Amino acid sequence: MNSNFDDFVKQNVELLDQHIDELFDSDSTLNTDLKMMMKYSIDAGGKRVRPLVLLAILKAFGKTPNYDILTVAAALEAVHTYSLIHDDLPAMDNDDLRRGRPTSHKKFGEAEAILAGDALLTVAFQWISSTNLKDRIKSELVLSLASDAGASGMIAGQLLDIQGNQRHYSLAELKHLHHLKTGKMLLFPAEAALIMKPSKLQVAELVKDFMANFGLAFQIHDDIIDVTESTAILGKTAGKDVDLNKNTYVNLLGLSGAKEELNQVLQKCEQDLTSLGELQPEMDLMILEGFLTYLK
């Protein structure tokens, strides 16, 4: 990773974490126990990839983080964290570890974990609605996040993932599953950035195409490290998808085939950035390029 990217990540993770703390601390209406359970999961670490990508896209357009931008980024992280809490539940993946710590249901109980997830999901829309952004922008952000996280996005993908326990998917079906389950919540940063900083159509389409490809690469990479990294490094149970014979790129294509697929998708990401640079040379794309190093 280049030093500019490292500095960007370090500075903005600190900004995000401080802002999330401020959002929680400023809400005197939150139940004390529920707040503690929500923060247990959202403060557990993680790379903050989704909100960081949002900030990186806005940086490429020349916008620096302010209170409202950070609030939207925090809302995105809240929705992502809720999805992890519910994904780990006994009825779903039944995992004991997340980010190196006991999962929410192991720490607090299954019912409490469900409620903590529900609270993080709904507080995200509360946070967006509380910003000083124009009403039209807030409305578009809420609509986009609800669509990407809900029945036409992540939740639909999660259902396909569960249904896949009963059958093996084709490569096209697997790509569709992960476009919904993983890709939609990585597409939202592009949509949100373009809502807050509109751009000409060709540029907007390339930014969204980059994030769609990045989302697919992110999932393939996740499938690969599930079988190549240890539980200690992953912070969650390694090899579980293979043990459960789930629909993954490794199970479908083999490890070498999954790596080849990842390389091809990363090449598409790089081509998107090259095209963006040619179309709008003033864009600072160095940080976005840095995100691809996560997956190599």
Automatic annotation (TrEMBL):
Enzyme superclass (EC): transferase
Q: What is its EC number?
A: 2.5.1.10
Q: Tell me, which GO biological process terms does this entry list?
A: terpenoid biosynthetic process
Tell me if Oxidoreductase is a UniProt keyword of this record: no
Question: Catalysed reaction per UniProt?
Answer: isopentenyl diphosphate + (2E)-geranyl diphosphate = (2E,6E)-farnesyl diphosphate + diphosphate
Question: Which SUPFAM superfamilies does this entry report, sorted A to Z?
Answer: Terpenoid synthases
Per its UniProt record, the required cofactor names are: Mg(2+)
Q: Which UniProt keywords apply?
A: Isoprene biosynthesis, Magnesium, Metal-binding, Transferase
Q: Which residues form the signal peptide?
A: none
List, alphabetically, the GO terms of the cellular component aspect: cytoplasm
InterPro entries, sorted? Isoprenoid_synthase_dom_sf, Polyprenyl_synt, Polyprenyl_synt_CS, Prenyl_diphosphate_synthase
Entry superkingdom: Bacteria
The family database entries (Pfam families) matched by this protein are listed as:
polyprenyl_synt
Q: Name one GO molecular function term.
A: metal ion binding
Membership in a protein family: Belongs to the FPP/GGPP synthase family.
Recorded hits in NCBIfam families, A to Z, give: FPPsyn
Protein name from the UniProt record: Farnesyl diphosphate synthase
- Organism listed in the record: Pediococcus pentosaceus CGMCC 7049
